[in-house]
């Protein structure tokens, strides 16, 4: 017991010293004040200011366009402008005149040289090299080199087929072709088909006057005296004769099949009953169908 008592006394002594040290640590030193938490309004204001600073630092970029559009500066864009300019002009253009129209006189020589090479090889451009006393010129190459009434009639008369000519293809090199087509149609020199929606000319053919044939008034009178049947009368007459008109859908009636009653199948493996009356009952199984 003495050993246990000595251990208990030492434990109590150690516990008292530890408790004193802990109380001293809590009392010594200035009390630390808790940091004040920012109010919600202050936090929101600071976040808004940070977003404004970030947005102000970013450059103004239109998000509907690529980063570097290069509008009007790409060489193929200038080629398109040059071809459209030559399409509106009837006279050939020198390369210097094309550069002046595009406002490219001050561009570097490498850019000008590349532009000239593209125009020379373009399938929509006619290039005439430099000759003695005349500079090299460029002109628009249309699908059909037709720009007047005489050239249109000459082209149509030289055709070996009756395919006709598309007015859309004709306007490629002759924007005002439709006015001339209307005049030639009124003079009886052209046959024209037009769109139902806007009455614009669609296809043209030559009208050969040698094929025109005048009929006597007597034949015209006989022709107009012939009375046409009323709409639907011809169809009624055909149906009376048991014929179906071509413009009427023919309904084919399918024959109706009689529904067959399902046959009762004999029960397989059934047990025979009434064995005790085998001498009284008769067997009619041979009469089953």
SSE blueprint and pairings:
Blueprint (H helix, E strand, L loop, with lengths): L1 H26 L12 H18 L17 H14 L4 E2 H8 L6 H13 L3 E4 L8 E4 L8 H9 L7 E2 H4 L6 H10 L3 E5 L6 E6 L10 H9 L7 H8 L49
Antiparallel strand pairs: 1-3, 2-3, 4-6, 5-6
Strand order of the largest sheet: 1-3-2
Shape: flat
Distance between the termini: 116 Å
Taken as a percent bin, the fraction of beta residues is: 5-15%
Number of helices: 10
Number of beta strands? 6
Q: Which residue ranges are poorly predicted, with pLDDT under 50 across at least 5 consecutive positions?
A: 61-72
Kindly state the percentage of residues in helix.
Answer: 40-55%
Order of helices and strands: HHHEHHEEHEHHEEHH
Average pLDDT confidence is: 78
**Main β-sheet: number of strands, strand sense, barrel status?**
3 strands, antiparallel
**What structural class should be given to the helix and strand makeup?**
mainly alpha
Question: From the alpha-carbon coordinates, what is the Rg to the nearest angstrom?
Answer: 52 Å
